Amino acid sequence: MMLALGVLAGCAAPDAPMQRPPRKTGSRTPYTKPLMSPGAQFGALPPAVQNTVRAEVGSADILDVVKDTGSGHVFYTIYFRKADLFPPLYVAPDGSVLNPDLTVAVAAPRKTSVEVGTGSGMALKLSDLPPKVVKALQERAPHAELASIETETWGDRLVYIVSFKDPAHHPDMHLTADGSILKESQR
Hints:
Elements: H1 2-11, H2 38-43, H3 47-57, E1 62-68, E2 75-80, E3 89-91, E4 97-98, E5 104-106, E6 111-115, H4 131-140, E7 146-154, E8 157-164, E9 173-176, E10 181-182
Antiparallel strand pairs: 1-2, 2-3, 3-4, 4-5, 6-7, 7-8, 8-9, 9-10
């Protein structure tokens, strides 16, 4: 009997991962949403948006961050824990402060350069551009490699200036948020 116990004990693998008990179907739990802290949401924002939030509200406690594409424009709505002191802040991907109707209240710095794909942590993802700008880029230069994206405010318009790695075949494109292509002379 002792021999059998010794053999069985020797066969057990102490480093083997523990098996999870089988899930019961139909069990209820009060936890239904993935956990995402406001700090993690803030950290996922583009750097220009983070800078604007810091400039506008300092270290006010963030309650929630929502990325939205209202009226074809990408923007972020930041909600604060003390809503009576800090109403929702609307920010464009370039860092411009927006009014609730999405018009520009405070423009971002005149020109901000964002390198694409440099691994510097400052890359602007295409998903941060308005959908119509992405569509125009895909239609006009579907296989061109992006070199950089710059934003400028021309009058009351935010203009995306897209540079390509092969400027001989793909000159810079100037696009408005609705996907319209502008010429430098339309400044």
